[in-house]
Amino acid sequence: xGAEALSGAGGARPRRTGAAGAGAGRAGAGAGRAGAGRAGAGAGRAGAGRAGAGAGRAGAGRTKSGKPRPGTGxxxxxxxxxxxxxxxxxxxxxxPAQRRASAASAPDGSRARRQGxxxxxxxxxxxxxxxxxxxxxxxxxxxxxxxxxxxxxEALRAGVPSAVLYxxxxxxxxxxxxxxxxxxxxxxxVVLEAGAAELDRLTGGALHQGLALRVRPYDxxxxxxxxxxxxxxxxxxxxxxxxxxxxxRNLGAVVRSxxxxxxxxxxxxxxRGAGVTAGAWKASAGALARVPVARxxxxxxxxxxxxxxxxxxAGLDAAGDTEIRDLDLATAPLVLVIGSEGRGLSRIVAQxxxxxxxxPMAARTESLNAGVAAGIALYEVAAVRSRPR
Length: 389
Fold this sequence. Notes:
By secondary structure, the chain is α/β, with parallel strands linked by helices. The chain has 2 domains: 99-215, CATH 3.30.1330.30; 223-386, SPOUT methyltransferase, trefoil knot domain (Alpha/beta knot), CATH 3.40.1280.10. The chain has helices at 2-58, 96-104, 112-115, 149-157, 175-186, 196-203, 223-232, 248-260, 278-284, 299-308, 347-351, 370-386; strands spanning 128-129, 144-147, 162-168, 190-194, 211-215, 238-243, 265-269, 293-296, 312-316, 322-323, 334-339, 355-358. The strands form 2 sheets. Strands 8-7-6-11-9-12-10 form a 7-stranded parallel sheet, sandwiched between helices. It starts with a helix and ends with a helix.
């Protein structure tokens, strides 16, 4: 009985142990579920905090309630900065006034073919281009660029007054590039390296081949300076004036003829006329370095001023009554006015002339190039003056 009691007691203990283990298991499971709940709640709160912070950053311009935040009135740390005064319409890219200004400041030769004034104007492939910012047509104050290897070499050979020679950063050197660098160094021209994009901008998109030459603005004389030049040389004044000649190469040809036949200068109008450009320098073959070019604000008034000073004015016109070789005024102080090939002299300029003379030509020939007509007329005047009196 004692043994049974012991065995019964011994059997009861395991049951109690099992019950205790089951309770411990249930307690551990409950604790696990509680811990998992607390961990999930913590993770939820952490995620909600991060989401709220992100939402706060995304909606920084709004309050917690979603309403827009009030501004600072431009007084805060990140206040707005002004852009300065509004530029004029002609300086705003894309504005119609800016396009009209760019079209009006196109190269002089672009209108020569429409007026029938000499040969066709140089294109971008010929090496001549104008910068984006130009003075009024015929003003001659803006810098001009000669683009292309052949054009640059020829301009430097002709002694065109130049300021800067731009050479491409990775340009492949040949004999033209080497000669350009040598001529620039001999003439004291600054040599700068420029990238392809910079050369495109400077030359206006012309075919520059890695070389561009900036030409110096021409220093024009005053029309009265030409009379003073003749007086200093103790000679009868002989001056050539151009009316409506828009091709710079014609201007260069007239200057070359003026130098050959003893003229004391050339007068051009400030508007609607060719100015001294790189094309004029090349056509003059260096004569622009010896014969001054004067610029008149109003050509008709300048001619009247010459008349008041005792100088006769003769205009070349196909309808003139006197042939140039029979001009008696050739032995007197004289201004010879040459008009454009197609239009001739303007009405106001023709009225300012003392006499209209013509060059005898065959009936089938309507007109001559302005440079050719000036050369013939100046030669005839020089021939009359050289005859014994």
